[in-house]
């Protein structure tokens, strides 16, 4: 009986990008990093007798003005070295704004078209920055739609969806390689309390908290990671283990942090504590920071500061001494017409007045009344 022989099917794999183009793209990104100095670690002037130091790492000094410059660089290198970007690729991202500003910068550097899919509520200042970098903005009415719309657009044009919310925790080398965690600990080395008690960050993708949380464990450090979360975000309920059907998370009014779902890049196991922060408190804290230090920051920095001051008061009240580090994520100029506008705040029911005294008591007296 004759045996049936299966024919050999010769299927050619997809052609990888031209290696010369790839090498040049990676070189350009590395050259940009070499031109950029590290960001400052600013010590805030809490009363000296507390023996509690508070620091903000000023990420607004990156070339694209925010913490997301680090993430965008990592995402482009990740896509390039995985062979999914090639000459002429349209790069597409779902974003609340700042990541897209930085990604548009890197896309233009590589000569690639860029489209940002964002909620229509994104500040006009951020939209203008993306367009200034040569990107195009595709606005949607519901922030929860950005993922599917970005994926669909990428399929339609044969482009690449960077997907920061999935890849943020893996695109950055959390063991070191000058990531934000390594930078913080190197800059803290000569401080009175060089190993922080807490590092306080918000979560947008979850990538920053994942990087810092993994790094301190890898280095065997006792530093704890606190994630501050704005109203209506899914991260805090998800971390607590609440039933997702009961949380009704709808995202956040604080641009850059808080999401309508727990993102794949949020690594709950490396987060030691979470603190919910009212939106009005976040805005109040940015104004308080400017009044006391002259630093002008966006609302997510206010969320960070509100949580960091709470922890500072707790540390002092227990008789402890130590340092707390948080982030200045971006500058206030991106929000001049929104969070910096009293009429805009009033229309949305955001009243900063009740939190001004909470912040004053915390800063001056070390007493938390929030």
Tell me the helix content: 40-55%
Number of strands: 10
**What does the oligomeric state look like here?**
single chain
Largest sheet: 6 strands, mixed
**What's the average pLDDT?**
92
The coarse silhouette is globular
Helix count equals: 14
Output the CATH class name of the largest domain. Answer: Alpha Beta
Question: What is the gyration radius calculated from CA atoms?
Answer: 22 Å
The computed structural class is alpha/beta
CATH fold naming of the largest domain: Rossmann fold
Give the percentage of residues in beta strands: 5-15%
Task: Give helix and strand order, one letter per element, not per position.
Answer: HEEHEHEHEHEHHEHEHHEHHEHH
Question: Total domains, how many?
Answer: 2
Tell me the span between the first and last alpha carbons. Answer: 86 Å
CATH architecture of the largest domain: 3-Layer(aba) Sandwich
Unreliable stretches, pLDDT < 50, 5 or more residues?
none
Care to give the gist of this entry?
This protein is an alpha/beta fold and 370 residues long.
Would you kindly provide a written description of the structure presented here, covering whatever features stand out?
- With 370 residues, this protein is of the alpha/beta class.
- It has 2 domains: 223 residues, Rossmann fold, CATH 3.40.50; 102 residues, Rossmann fold (3-Layer(aba) Sandwich).
- Helices cover 42% and strands 14% of the residues.
- The chain contains 14 helices and 10 strands.
- It has a 6-stranded mixed sheet with strand order 1-2-10-7-8-9.
- α4 links the parallel β4 and β5.
- α1 runs antiparallel to α2.
- The longest helix is centred in the C-terminal third of the chain and has 19 residues.
- It starts with 18 loop residues before the first helix and ends in a 5-residue tail after the last helix.
- The model has no long low-confidence stretch (mean pLDDT 92).
């Amino acid at each position: 009986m004759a045996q049936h022989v299966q024919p050999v099917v010769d299927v050619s794999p997809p052609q990888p990008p031209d290696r010369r183009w790839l090498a040049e793209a990676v070189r350009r990104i590395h050259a940009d990093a070499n031109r950029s100095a590290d960001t400052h670690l600013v010590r805030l002037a809490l009363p000296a007798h507390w023996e509690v130091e508070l620091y903000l790492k000023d990420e607004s000094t990156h070339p694209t003005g925010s913490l997301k410059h680090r993430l965008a660089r990592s995402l482009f290198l990740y896509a390039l070295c995985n062979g999914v970007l090639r000459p002429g690729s349209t790069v597409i991202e779902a974003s609340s704004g700042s990541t897209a500003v930085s990604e548009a910068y890197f896309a233009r550097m590589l000569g690639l078209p860029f489209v940002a899919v964002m909620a229509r509520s994104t500040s006009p200042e951020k939209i203008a920055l993306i367009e200034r970098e040569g990107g195009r903005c595709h606005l949607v009415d519901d922030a929860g739609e950005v993922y599917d719309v970005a994926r669909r657009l990428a399929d339609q044009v044969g482009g690449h969806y960077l997907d920061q919310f999935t890849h943020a925790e893996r695109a950055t080398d959390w063991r070191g390689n000058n990531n934000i965690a390594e930078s913080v600990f190197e800059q803290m080395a000569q401080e009175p309390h060089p190993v922080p008690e807490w590092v306080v960050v918000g979560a947008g993708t979850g990538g920053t908290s994942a990087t810092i949380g993994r790094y301190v464990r890898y280095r065997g450090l006792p530093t704890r990671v606190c994630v501050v979360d704005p109203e209506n975000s899914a991260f805090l309920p998800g971390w607590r283990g609440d039933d997702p059907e009961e949380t009704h998370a709808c995202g956040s009014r604080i641009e850059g942090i808080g999401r309508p779902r727990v993102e794949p890049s949020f690594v709950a196991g490396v987060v030691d504590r979470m603190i919910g922060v009212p939106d009005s408190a976040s805005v109040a804290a940015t104004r308080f920071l400017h009044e006391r230090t002259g630093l002008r920051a966006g609302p997510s920095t206010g969320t960070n500061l509100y949580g960091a001051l709470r922890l500072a008061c707790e540390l002092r009240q227990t008789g402890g001494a130590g340092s707390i580090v948080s982030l200045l994520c971006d500058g206030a100029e991106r929000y001049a017409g929104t969070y910096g506008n009293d009429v805009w705040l009033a229309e949305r029911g955001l009243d900063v007045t009740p939190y001004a005294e909470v912040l004053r008591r915390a800063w001056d007296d070390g007493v938390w009344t929030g």
